[in-house]
Design brief:
alpha+beta; 3 helices; binds ligand TR5; adenylylsulfatase activity; HIT-like; Histidine_triad_HIT; Histidine_triad_CS; HIT domain-containing protein
């Protein structure tokens, strides 16, 4: 029972962790996030691609053999996709196009998934728009 309980607790805590992180996040805040520190090179990240507008780096807690985050270097109010306005169309397109480029760089010929988590129900935890690029294994549908 102790083993079962301990396994159950472990499983539940990791699920609860991301849900709690998402619930605790300030959906409307435009305050700096950890991603600003990565952009400014104040904290290290495993950068796989960079140009003047987009930065792509490996997720610290990968959910697939390849798990990369693509972010706009200038947030410009884009805490999440729900804040997108017409002026953001160019950067939104660039993020997706760069995801395709990085997928090719990573050798994901058999396919991949791109995800944008939005708000508490979407389990968003970092309020700086980012595209997840996941690959290297068979994905399932529907997502959890
Ligand atoms: O949950 P959402 O969609 O908001 O995704 C945020 C992602 O940022 C998660 O997949 C986290 O694992 C990832 N993350 C969080 C941190 C971090 C990171 N990826 C790379 N490097 C990171 N550092 C240095 N610090 C984080 N807190």
């Amino acid at each position: 029972i102790a083993v079962l309980t301990s396994h159950f607790t472990t499983t539940m805590s990791s699920e609860k962790e991301s849900a709690l992180a998402a619930a605790a996040a300030p959906p409307s805040a435009d305050s700096p996030t950890i991603f600003d520190k990565i952009i400014n090179k104040e904290i290290p990240a495993k950068v796989v691609y960079e140009d003047d507008k987009v930065l792509a780096f490996r997720d610290i807690a990968p959910q697939a053999p390849t798990h990369i985050l693509l972010i706009p270097k200038v947030k410009d109010g884009l805490t999440g996709l729900s804040k997108a306005e017409e002026r953001h169309c160019e950067i939104l397109g660039q993020l997706l196009y760069t995801a395709k480029l990085v997928a090719k760089l990573e050798g994901l010929e058999d396919g991949f998934r791109v995800v944008i988590n939005e708000g508490p129900n979407g389990c968003q935890s970092v309020y700086h728009l980012h595209v997840h690029l996941l690959g290297g294994r068979q994905m399932n549908w529907p997502p959890g």
